[in-house]
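Researcher: Please predict.
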Amino acid sequence: MQNQPVGPPRTGLDGGLANQLSVRLLLATSPPTVFDADTGAKGSVPGLPGGKRLVSVQRVGHTPVILTSPECQSATCAPDDVYTYTGPDTAPVPLGQAFSIAPGADGDSVWAIRQDSPGNCRLQHVSLAGAALDPGTVASCRTIVRQETSHGLLITVDNGTAETVDVLIDPATGRSVQQAPRILAATGDRLILGGLTDLTVVDLPGGARTKVAPPVVDSTPYVLPNRDGSLAAVDFGTPAWHSTDIQTRDLWLLDLHDLTWQEAPSMPYTTEHLKQSGLDWSPDGDLLLDDGVVAAWHPGEPAWRLGSAKIPDAQQFPGVSIS
């Protein structure tokens, strides 16, 4: 099955009648911004380093985590300062510095690549209250930690080199559980692997591997499983549609039980925010998209629900839900 639109993609999302969203996002601006999708109200996060900085945000369980560092163009940039956002009435909790962090499987901790000295790093488990949960183990500073599940910690080894490989490891021992050139996502009992023309879903308990033909030819889609691991949002976006300068987004859902596809409404469409926009899942199962405005879609609904307010252009990376 191929999704080959006739003519150019549509120029925006089509919204349904219910255009009010009770959604707030934490946006990766410098400084970070708390943003109301419907009213456009904006709030700042106090207690963070000031000045012009590089900012990104992640969601760990229900808690947003902020990474902020001075802008840097060299290969020896300093690690990020890491903070949890605990709400408008409390100061962010500092978690120290890290080159990368990944959500812990418990939703209350992160795995971090810490720097001990130039060129020397360790992998450490840290609670969202800032307490070290282990002494840490030696790790390459180029290691990217990505996601922990009950089957292990997904990491990217030798990031940015010809030897880059994705590995699911036992963080307690460092033992490799699964390894592949590209593991796109880990969720529950499953891994989703990327291939040249297809995806492979790996069942970790039984070891079965099932190839899945994607609806769009794209060797590097972005995959975001939902919170219970039943669905994965797959973005076949491209920065150069049909070799033009047109950026497009094309969102599909992969059912991780029967491995069938469902296309989201209004796809594909053109966007000017491909690199700065992104996806998140709400606690009640809505797929949230921040792309110029905030949009929400519950699988099975006929259209997106659109917020009324425009997202600030200063956003550097995707935001996360704090609703």
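Model: The chain is about 0% helix and 45% strand.
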